[in-house]
């Protein structure tokens, strides 16, 4: 492995909202899903080939419209500028006290192209400097960090790090998009955000506790013993529009509505299963799917929800069904049906279950469990693909539409989740190319990753490998 | 002196000539003599009367809202930076809680860093941001151009540059080569009124002239980076701000002017060692420069005010108050009666009061000393709350408040009281020249409807 590329974090400051929150000091409780996610952190990095900020003077970055638009936008997100406090029962809640968001500034000793070719996952961690809450003490700890890292030759990476307790990757992506829209002077469709879930309509549930697959899965998960930590490695595979189109076309007969997520999940799942030695004798395999739940909740404009709205569900398949030539198609179909079958009731009962069964005798929630893992988990960001208004066929992603005033699309966007242990994590995210192209970030135990990067089936799809370290 | 004597002589010559002429013509010689005497006196008076100095308009700086410092941010930064000195941090918290500042006071960008690491470039950037924005507003409001400016005075106590700040302004606005520029440094929070005094004297000498006075304090280079308790107070109070004032003696602008200058009274207690040493810039044991504020500050301020108003009172108080004061003085000093010192009721002399927003304690102390009502000090309190202690420019935010509230009427008198290191107490009295409509632009313009607000004794997060 090559020596790490030097990232020098040279400044730390606080960005405040421009308008005080009214009423000041109001506290906001967290939902059961929020609390369940507490052990993880999320890191999203937007890479731009040229910095959208002027380079005159030390504060050019600060005094530009960029900071003004950020401060103005933060006025609508008191959940981001507030601080965590404990409520009467000892559980976390957010206090809207306008303390602000921590910002870091760094310089990187290489160009952005070199970085994307040769940097690895631990290098990327330097672009989103993150510290967990020190000793459980939330005072002086900013739950959200933004890092601006300048590359040699003018590139810029904007990294968002935050605790999963307060937001999911979708929330942060939409916040970021609102920022770039505001800086360009355009109105944003995702702002002002809805902070926290509205009360859920429970009346449609039957009185007998509906043990859906989700709740059963969570029950099992909470009983799992912690796995021994192995060294994990991460690689990013970029699949082009053409290749994915071809693949989807090939299976179109059997599974007409398959999405790129369905296809890639099935593909990676099967290939990883082949690599994993431990599963050789087990007849059933399962994967955990993390799907966005915004549309299933009673939120008037789902994409405005800022918080956690995820569903974790388990999909199992029998080895014998996916043996043979049609194995992949079968798997794709399974995934597709599973994803489409997630209904509002499932989400509601999940929330109810999280609410009731995690509470201890004294009303305090225990320390959060690991939600991403320990079994193999796959995260979908398909909901961030939006059809373009002027063209029915072309689909653009919100992620790559995040352009500042200079109208430059990000050249790459990385999604990472912190504290992922166990079997591994697959995040299937949009690509700069748009359409059905996808960027797949895979985290696996190091030896399995080495084998995956040479897997013939995957290599057949001609992925471009980036951010995977020197190979 | 010679000029004065010449003018008197000329008046008398003319008067005598007329006198002789009219006497020969008139049937009532004594009446004519008497009338001519009156006319002579009147002409003499008008010829030698000092020119009226008018305040055409003024502008105050409104910082960008991203520079604001919410309570929680201030507390948090303090906690992180003073982590090694918990006692200093606790002291700072106590000050913050009782300071009387609100959530929207502003600090320059350099001081939002943890830890702050300000340099000369940052200080210049703050200076340019504050001064240029304010002077731009002033030119827009008055309709004047930079070429119309004859005198330029800039006062900024703790940031000294070469070329001077006044040169910076001349360079930016391409002012005329014969502009008379002055740069006052080191004169503390009352420097704004000292600049007004200087402008007044210059405008008395130079006829038909316009003068700009720029009052500001640049915070960037003056944040105290150490942990010494007695030096932490300024960090908690001083905030970004600035004002630009246009003064003139031009007759053509007299109708447009908002105020006319009535009196300037300056008192300096520097001869007294205690007064001299109560606000002192020094270095702490680690070499960090800061300003130490003595515990006697309130008392010294009150005493300097007493001295100032004893002179000002004789100029502005109505006869009734003067009489009461004299009677009380006689009773106490000569008749040796045990009576409390009579504080003249300055509310009979002035309609509006602007007390330097040095801190909550200062305003409270002055309110008590002068027997002022809460309404009288509302402008001072609200300025401290919204803008913090902006040093020499705070008095202008206060007048701005009164105007924004629509309370300034023609003929009303405003008293500005400034305090500064040294120890100085300066008073300036203005008379409102015309009815002033609520300004549509300015620092208070979009926010005045929220004020006044209730400020708690102690702010608890």
Could you give the topology of this structure?
The complex is a heterodimer of chains A (471) and B (461).
Chain A: E1 7-15, E2 27-29, H1 32-36, E3 41-48, H2 60-63, H3 65-74, H4 78-81, E4 83-86, E5 92-95, E6 101-111, H5 112-118, H6 121-125, E7 144-152, E8 156-163, H7 169-184, E9 194-195, H8 213-223, E10 232-239, H9 241-251, H10 260-275, E11 284-292, E12 305-306, E13 310-318, H11 319-322, H12 327-341, H13 344-357, E14 377-380, E15 385-387, E16 395-397, E17 412-417, E18 425-430, E19 438-445, H14 446-452, H15 456-459, E20 464-466
Parallel strand pairs in A: 6-7, 9-12, 11-14, 14-18
Antiparallel strand pairs in A: 1-6, 2-5, 3-8, 3-17, 4-5, 7-8, 10-19, 10-20, 11-13, 15-16, 18-19
Chain B: H1 2-25, H2 29-48, E1 54-60, H3 71-81, H4 86-98, H5 120-142, E2 151-155, H6 165-173, E3 180-184, H7 191-205, E4 210-217, H8 233-237, E5 241-248, E6 259-268, H9 273-277, E7 279-283, E8 289-293, H10 297-316, H11 319-333, E9 352-355, H12 360-370, H13 378-387, H14 394-404, E10 413-420, E11 424-432
Parallel strand pairs in B: 2-3, 2-4, 9-10
Antiparallel strand pairs in B: 1-5, 1-6, 4-5, 6-11, 7-8, 10-11
Please explain how this structure is put together.
The complex is a heterodimer of chains A (471) and B (461). Chain A is an alpha+beta fold and 471 residues long. Chain A has two domains: 7-190, Chloramphenicol acetyltransferase-like domain (Chloramphenicol Acetyltransferase), CATH 3.30.559; 213-466, Chloramphenicol acetyltransferase-like domain (Chloramphenicol Acetyltransferase). Chain A has 15 helices and 20 strands. In chain A, the strands form five sheets. Chain A has a seven-stranded mixed beta sheet with strand order 13-11-14-18-19-10-20. Chain A has a six-stranded mixed beta sheet with strand order 1-6-7-8-3-17. Mean pLDDT of chain A is 83; it is low at 203-210. Chain B has helices at 2-25, 29-48, 71-81, 86-98, 120-142, 165-173, 191-205, 233-237, 273-277, 297-316, 319-333, 360-370, 378-387, 394-404, and strands spanning 54-60, 151-155, 180-184, 210-217, 241-248, 259-268, 279-283, 289-293, 352-355, 413-420, 424-432. The longest helix of chain B has 24 residues, at 2-25. The mean pLDDT of chain B is 91. Chain A binds chain B through residues 11-20, 24-25, 57-59, 62-63, 67-68, 70-72, 83, 97-100, 139-140, and chain B through 64-66, 68-73, 75-77, 79-80, 103-104, 109-110, 112-114, 119, 121-122, 125, 129, 461. Chain B: Belongs to the thiolase-like superfamily. Chalcone/stilbene synthases family. Chain B: Its EC number is 2.3.1.-. Chain B: This is 3-ketoacyl-CoA synthase. Chain B: Pathway: Lipid metabolism; fatty acid biosynthesis.
